[in-house]
Design goal:
binds ribulose-5-phosphate, manganese, 9 helices, alpha/beta
């Protein structure tokens, strides 16, 4: 079964002072999801938003809020984010010891969709048990830059991880994040990524709708080849 493209502008590149209108602008341009980067200033050297901002945005949109938790203690965020209206909850595998089963269970019981993310230096094998669990994650996010900041350069070597995942799990949602745009989408889509996070390439474009459409077309085309 082919996976579907999900184009998720990273709101980290938006004007936070006008978050609701920026979000609506991206949805009007054709975005499927809104990617929300939650950073605690500890797991990564940057501090962004938390549950109060998600709650404020939720009052203005019904869109899927794809929350990426770059935080040291993801368990602490489950209840506040669920109450705030988050849709997806993607935590980092590097933050866990043996408590991932409880974390996934709590994310699901709070009505959110669990995902797991890997930093560039983390072997992809570390997520296999979470994808194959009885109560599994439903998405793997392969970071294609060091997490923490927008506008960095895509690391093409991360595509090996995407290829391994796509071969092993044909119907898994595989997200890529960092440096994605018109010049890097072909390599990511042909490796098998179907959920595309893009910040500066979308927000910085004269015609963001054209970039979103190009990203979607690349994923659709690559998926047709991959399932043949
Ligand atoms: O998670 C992130 C940073 O940690 C951002 O989502 C990501 O970097 C997107 O920005 P850009 O497309 O400009 O690279």
């Amino acid at each position: 079964m082919a996976v579907t493209p999900k184009i998720a502008p990273s709101m980290l590149s938006s004007d936070f002072a006008n978050l609701a209108s920026e979000a609506q602008r991206m949805l009007d341009f054709g975005a499927d999801w809104l990617h929300m980067d939650i950073m605690d200033g500890h797991f990564v050297p940057n501090l962004t938003i938390g549950a109060p901002v998600i709650e404020s945005l939720r009052k203005h949109t019904k869109a899927y809020l794809d929350c990426h938790l770059m935080v040291t203690n993801p368990l602490d965020y489950v209840e506040p984010l669920a109450k705030a209206g988050a849709s997806g909850f993607t935590f980092h595998v590097e933050t866990l010891k043996n408590d991932w089963e409880e974390l996934i269970q709590r994310i699901k019981s709070h009505g959110m969709r669990p995902g797991v993310s890997v930093k560039p230096g983390t072997p992809i094998e570390e997520v296999f048990p979470l994808v194959e669990a009885e109560n599994p994650v439903e998405m793997v996010l392969v970071m294609t830059v060091e997490p923490g900041f927008g506008g960095q350069k895509f690391i093409p070597q991360m595509m090996d991880k995407v290829r391994i995942l796509r071969k092993k799990y044909p119907s898994l949602d595989i997200e890529v994040d960092g440096g994605l745009g018109p010049s890097t989408i072909e390599v990511a889509a042909s490796a098998g990524a179907n959920c595309i996070v893009a910040g500066s390439s979308v927000f910085g474009a004269p015609e963001p709708a054209q970039v979103i459409s190009l990203l979607r077309n690349s994923v659709e085309k690559a998926q047709q080849t991959l399932i043949q």
